Amino acid sequence: MTAQSRAITAIRMLAADSVQKANSGHPGMPIGSAPMAYAIWKQMKHNPKDPAWQARDRFVLSAGHASMLEYALLHLFGYPLGIEDLKAFRQWGSKTPGHPEYGHTVGVEATSGPLGQGIAMAVGMAMAESHLAAIFNREGYPVVDNYTYVLMGDGCMMEGVQAEAAALAGVMQLNKLIVLYDSNRITIEGSTDIALTEDVQKRYEAYGWDVQQVADGEDVAAIEAAIAKAKTTSTPSLIIVHTNIAHGTPKEGKASAHGEPLGAENIAAMREFYHWEAAPFEIPQDVREHFAAMLPGFEKQEADYNAMFQAYQAAYPEMYAQWQAYHSKELPEALLQDDSLFAADKPTATRASSGTVLNKLNQYLPNLFGGSADLAPSNKTELKGEAFYAPGDRTGKNIHFGIREFAMAAACNGIALYGGLRPYCATFMVFADYLKPALRLSALMKLPVIYVLTHDSIGVGEDGPTHQPIEHLAALRATPDTLVFRPADTKETAACYIAALRHGLPAVMALTRQNLPQYAETSRDVERGAYILRDTAAGLPDVILMASGSEVQCIMEAADALEKEDISVRVVSVPCMDLFEQQDVEYQESVLPRAVTARVAVEAASSFGWHKYTGLDGKVIAIDHFGASAPAGTLFQEFGINTQAVIDAARSLVK
Q1: What's the pLDDT tens digit per position in 303-350?
Q2: Does residue 619 sit in helix, strand or coil?
Q3: Is 333 a catalytic site residue?
Q4: How far apart are CA 61 and CA 14, in angstroms?
Q5: Which of 218, 224, 382, 405 is flagged as catalytic?
């Protein structure tokens, strides 16, 4: 057995033994795809001694259930993941969870999670690489120059987000994206023939990809040759590698090898097949030496890059300063001091306010990079004067994602993961249903992706119930580590963007289609999530009125009417429940004192979530049913989301 064969067998045995010890996991794909994974990592530009090296190639395991494959690679190639970590696979507190998690295990580039999202995030990484390369590279100084590799399986190939992302990658001609498809033809229920019968090669060729086939997944030389050829193409590359799940075990080619341990007898037979005499989790010295021998080459690649980058810094000091600005998480002081960001003199839809703010931010944040799912004119997300990112102009900061909400959001995750850019994406709020799985991964990875979701209520009007978000705000607010902002006017809109940029978490901007008034009382400081917009002259109020977004107009008008009836009112704007929940008890009490139980909340969406602020004695004016097709003004009246409804509710509570 050659040194290379023994190295690949070590990957296989670590995967099989770890799954067996955990009595949980997916051994089949790691065993079958070990040769192609080895082929990728052997030639990949990376340095286990510096996993975050900026110029490294990226590797995304889109088939995240095969996590033990990546953990075995990380361990054997010399990343800080020890044998004890592998023994703790899928256990409490371990560095080796069931699926790879970004920020948890060193060397993992993405929380690939549910199938299909890994390849979609890799599309974003490849976009980011080409964009930054176009901006920063100079002749003789390739400061941004890496490939993005993906290992995907049959499950990824069936997911819709994969198709969206692959089509986008083809349009954008992302020639430094190389995807290896482990075609083992097995899923949990059996042969893929029961559900996957199309010609994948023809489909990807129709997307605009270069496609190669490797007939034998054990042929490392053929895989290496396919990767080398992929690097010469002008399009993204798909390498279809035909493998057998759980190759070399009694369960080879069987569905039972997919998602359950092989069993002690089958692993013993596997050891015999591969002539592997080492005990579980024991790596022979010659195998250790084989992997260690690669390390100097990896380290030299980084050393050479660092020397080149140092020369670049001296030759192009202005570009280096810009590089530093792109990679800084701090906001420029000039941005924070720019009063024009908050200026407005007429009723304006917050989607329009958002567009104005985005364009002002672009003056201070050169690394904004994003776009809309074919709705930029409605979402107001185009950066004026900037080009659109395209094969012929990689410097463009606007992106045409096409009508691909899920892939758009997943690609933005990839852009954020790549580093150096501030990604944003946009669509109508009702299509949050289409992108929510990617937003959830934004939250899991704590990625600062901004989601601009306009047409946020029944204010959509005539498009009808299919396009009027009702339950969406509640669903988005229920997502951990996600900031959902619903501003009431231009001032709050700008403040919400600043807060989102400061916090570094995924942020949703819920914005109106319809015009809203501007208020002198609104605050630039929405960092605390909710604040007193108007208050009584002295003492506690008789009633507290609270709302977000467009319904702040209702409570402001209601307050005027109620005060004429000698009912004292406190008006509270709640642009971000998530931030308000983070405040200390003293602040929360100062805004919503327990002594005042007469409370009314109003929002043109589901009431879910508001009762924790109104209590059992308060009232929530909301919509717990779907909308209808009619002009927006008619809908607000017919559904009782209006000033009079707030007045009536308040009166009933203070009698």
Answers
A1: 999 999 999 999 999 999 999 999 999 999 999 999 999 999 899 999
A2: strand
A3: no
A4: 17
A5: 405
